């Protein structure tokens, strides 16, 4: 059986490039109040060398509760200038109505958000907790985590900030570095508290984006090293976007991640990607014939 010819490879690459171009450039319509942005790294070959490049992803939810991948870009690093250009591209395509941007504590992202959008920036609560517990010591992590969680459990932003300051004062004598961190990040970590209570469980962290990043990493690991940083990589994210955009609608209240699909076979197969694999039930070994059953 013969192999694939060079012309066939070229034709396939052209089809992929066209699909990625369609994925990256469609107009964005309507208002998208919540925007998650993050970056993951992949290896590409450039000028005969293997380097790591940043792959940035933007996911948003519109006013109908529809979640969609809005954009993707590739850059040498996560510098502020790169994030500014990435967000401006989204804005030129029509991204509007952004009220909250959720990301990790990257100074480039924070500066870019303030320059491109008139939106509040939310520091990922999960990433913050990891940083905070690093100052608590192994023996005090559980207690400190419980203390900080009391602020997140409040009903409104005012009560949350009051509780936050009380926690900072309580830990200050024994954990001054943690108290200083709490003082510095109060506004950024509690930003989500000013939004509707039924939305807060989904907008306080980058968890909705972490699953997508994990799926992209799983697919790109099959390739290993990409021949270049052009659109070949985008086919992984494009597949995810097509699935989320065609027939899958998230709950409008943002209180659940369950989706309903008008095209069940196609959506079901992709929706299962990235989901935790079911754990196989361990079967008890049967004793061999002629041997007594262990007691």
Gist of the model:
Helices cover 45% and strands 17% of the residues.
Structure description:
The chain has helices spanning about 5-25, 80-90, 105-115, 125-135, 140-150, 155-170, 175-190, 200-205, 205-225, 235-245, 265-270, and strands at about 35-45, 50-60, 65-75, 100-105, 120-125, 225, 250, 260. The protein has about 300 residues and is α/β, with parallel strands linked by helices. The protein has two domains: about 15-125 and about 205-260, Nucleotidyltransferase, domain 5, CATH 3.30.420; about 125-205. Strands 1, 2, 3, 4, 5 and 6 form a six-stranded mixed beta sheet that branches. GO terms for molecular function: DNA binding; transposase activity. One of its GO terms (biological process) is DNA transposition. Required for the transposition of the insertion element.
CATH architecture of the largest domain: 2-Layer Sandwich
What class, by secondary structure content? alpha/beta
Q: Could you give the count of β-strands? A: 8
**Shape descriptor:** globular
The amount of helix comes to 40-55%
Biased composition (Basic residues): 279-295
GO molecular function: DNA binding; transposase activity
Keywords: DNA recombination, DNA-binding, Transposable element, Transposition
Region (Disordered): 269-295
Write the layout of secondary structure elements.
Blueprint: H1 6-24, E1 34-46, E2 49-61, E3 67-75, H2 80-92, E4 100-103, H3 107-116, E5 120-123, H4 125-133, H5 141-152, H6 157-171, H7 176-189, H8 200-203, H9 207-223, E6 225-226, H10 234-245, E7 248-250, E8 259-261, H11 264-271
Parallel strand pairs: 1-4, 1-6, 4-5
Antiparallel strand pairs: 1-2, 2-3, 7-8
């Amino acid at each position: 059986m013969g192999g694939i010819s060079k012309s066939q490879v070229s034709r396939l690459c052209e089809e992929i490039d066209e699909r990625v171009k369609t994925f990256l450039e469609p107009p964005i319509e309507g208002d998208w109040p919540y925007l998650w942005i993050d970056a993951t790294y992949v290896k590409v070959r450039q000028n005969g060398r293997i380097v790591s490049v940043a792959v940035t992803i933007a996911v948003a939810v519109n006013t109908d509760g529809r979640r969609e991948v809005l954009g993707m870009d590739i850059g040498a690093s996560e510098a502020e200038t790169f994030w500014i250009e990435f967000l401006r591209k989204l804005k030129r395509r029509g991204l509007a109505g952004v009220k909250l941007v959720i990301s990790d504590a990257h100074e480039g992202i924070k500066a870019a958000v303030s320059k491109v959008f008139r939106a509040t920036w939310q520091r990922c609560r999960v990433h913050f907790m990891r940083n905070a517990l690093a100052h608590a010591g192994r023996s005090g992590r559980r207690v400190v985590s419980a203390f900080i969680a009391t602020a997140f459990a409040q009903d409104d932003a005012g009560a949350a900030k009051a509780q936050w300051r009380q926690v900072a004062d309580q830990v200050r004598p024994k954990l001054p570095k943690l108290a200083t961190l709490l003082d510095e990040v109060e506004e950024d970590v509690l930003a989500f508290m000013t939004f509707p209570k039924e939305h807060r469980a989904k907008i306080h962290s980058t968890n909705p984006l972490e699953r997508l990043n994990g799926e992209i990493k799983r697919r790109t690991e099959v390739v290993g090293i990409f021949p270049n940083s052009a659109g070949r990589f985008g086919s992984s994210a494009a597949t995810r976007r097509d699935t989320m955009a065609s027939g899958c609608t998230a709950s409008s209240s943002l209180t659940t991640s369950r989706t309903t699909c008008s095209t069940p076979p196609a959506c079901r197969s992709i929706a299962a990607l990235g989901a935790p694999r079911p754990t196989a039930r361990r079967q008890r070994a049967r004793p061999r014939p002629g041997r007594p059953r262990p007691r």
